[in-house]
Specification:
By secondary structure, this protein is α+β, with helices and mostly antiparallel strands. The chain has a single domain, classed as P-loop containing nucleotide triphosphate hydrolases (Rossmann fold), CATH 3.40.50. Helices cover 52% and strands 14% of the residues. The chain is elongated, with a radius of gyration of 18 Å.
Length: 151
């Protein structure tokens, strides 16, 4: 996993040959700090292919955070993830927002996950905006209910 984190940092705007050089100590320190923050540092020597779905999602979030972006896009962050790790992902997103001011754009079908994290929700149906509002407004929106439950 540590190698995945290091590559994600080095790859950004680097030539292929520069990516082959050893990582800077600050880069490795940042990777280790993120793995610890995401509570997966005990797995740093594991191959990504040996991780559970939730652990892979946490690794992907860590890789996205390596360049220290202000805005992070997460696509289906809870897909294939067990409920315990969903709570970990939710907790880490909250902490990054509160402590570092990170903004997250979430593409997600897990309405409970969205309702717990988001202040504003946009619902798309076949690529068209169907609704927007607070999570509560969205959960009560008849058009959204019809689109998702076929009522």
């Amino acid at each position: 996993m540590l190698e995945n984190m290091l590559i994600s940092r080095q790859w950004r705007g680097e030539s292929f040959w520069r990516m082959l050089r050893p990582s800077h100590p600050r880069t490795e320190r940042r990777a280790r700090e993120l793995l610890a923050f995401l509570q997966i540092d005990r797995l740093s020597d594991e191959l990504a292919g040996h991780l559970s779905g939730g652990q892979r999602r946490l690794l992907e979030i860590g890789m996205a955070l390596m360049p220290d972006p202000d805005i992070v896009l997460l696509d289906e962050a809870t897909s294939g993830v067990n409920p315990t790790l969903i709570e970990t992902i939710k907790d880490r997103i909250r902490a990054l927002n509160a402590e570092q001011g990170k903004t997250f754009l979430l593409i997600e079908h897990n309405i409970n996950f969205i309702a717990d994290l988001c202040s504003r929700v946009y619902v798309l149906n076949y690529g068209e905006k169907l609704a927007e509002g607070t999570p509560q407004e969205i959960m009560e929106n008849e058009a959204v209910i019809d689109a998702y439950f076929g009522a």
